[in-house]
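Run: sequence + zinc ion -> complex structure.
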Amino acid sequence: MASRTVTTKGISAGSGEIGAVARATPLVVVGRLGGALLDLALPASCAGCAAEGTALCPECRRALQVRLALPPGVPLGLPAAMPMPLAQLEWCAPFSGTVRVALHRLKYSGERRLAAPLSEAMAARWRKAGVGGELLVPVPVHAERARRRGYDQAFLLAAGVAERLHVPWLAALERTRHTTPQFELGRRARRSNVSGAFDLRAGSGAAIWGKWPILVDDVVTTGSTLVACAEVLYEAGAIAVSALAVARER
Ligand SMILES: [Zn+2]
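>> structure
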């Protein structure tokens, strides 16, 4: 069943990504090393309360648990509509307060240490509410953006959830064109912005055919991005597609 690129910890897919980054220009590589050293040099501070020594302290992690006890599919003052054709959409918390700051730091401040508590929360929610699904597939940023950032935050989240749920993950999708950040657009424009923006990564077809992938993303708004990704996976022979995110935005 498992193809060469699907492993319990997604090692092949993950190291393939690292390999792609390492082949970038020397300047970019130096920049990445500099970033890595900076991460080690700076002590973490909590995204919620600024306490030192942790990217997210135990007290502030509670912000990620507000939906933990809810049955599957129950909204919490947020849109209930299931973006079609998803079989299930689960998330941990509304996109606000500490959760919003934490995701912003993960995406824009290089705070990779947040991937651990965020993926822990996602795994906890899926253990509680997840139905079906056998393979985690991150919603990728454009390769160029991942190179500039040094990583793709959805890959970090997918790898973290995979490790905790003992489910394989695979970077099966690629973003084939740049898209405007969804938050800058109105609801109607969001669908056309991401429609056709994703494609199956070469060599991923066999791993998707007949499978039930779970898309992994940081924030869900209208769900247009998830729908665009799901359409590619259905096209590749997926029998169902679910999704798991850290947060949902109004
Ligand atoms: Zn805190």
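>> summary
The mean pLDDT is 83. The first strand starts at residue 88 and ends at 94.
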